[in-house]
Here is the input.
Amino acid sequence: MSRTIYCISGLGTDERIFAKLRPVGYNLKYIPQLLPDSQETISNYAARLAEFIKEDNAILLGVSFGGMLGIEISKIKPIQKLIIISGIKSSNELPRWMKMVGILKLNRVLPVRSYKFTERIDNNRLGITTDEEKELARALRQAADKGHMEWGVNEIFNWRNTWIPQNVTHIHGDKDRIFPLSRVKADFIIEGATHLLVYNRADEVNKCICKILGIE
Here is the structure.
């Protein structure tokens, strides 16, 4: 059995989001998010990411948008287990306001703005509170590619997936303000946790992952 977990970060983040994740007995391997073509579909993009997975029946972990990409990869490549953290599994779990923005194409009218003007609001929605978390979020935003962000936001708002693989397990926080728990069916719910739980509640996430993988 493979002892590698392939990890996909959320939109606008990178491997730094997994810095505190250390599931016992497993190594983490980060799948880098590539720059998309402007007209590229999420399925085609996921196929490019799947090329980084060098084994069949791998264990895949996706955070937020990375969870959606994990679903898309599962459609084209055999996956032993998919773990989704702070994400969604189908368009039924997508917040209604995101669906409406996608339908009306409002994200095209109001493209991604400079983080300097929205930093405080974004931090609040993500559940960022400590100076360490603020510094990480600022560094990630500065490094994020604007075109990638605009493409990803559009793909999220217009994701219409209805297929959920049987081998998926979902970890979610009950205070997530990006993808509210009221619309999400999660297998593990971490009380008081926000969208950033993979980083600021990593010890509890590690325990969940160990249970999912049969490690007590």
Remarks:
- The first helix runs from residue 42 to 50.
- DSSP finds nine helices and six strands in the chain.
- The two ends are 17 Å apart (CA to CA).
- The mean pLDDT is 92.
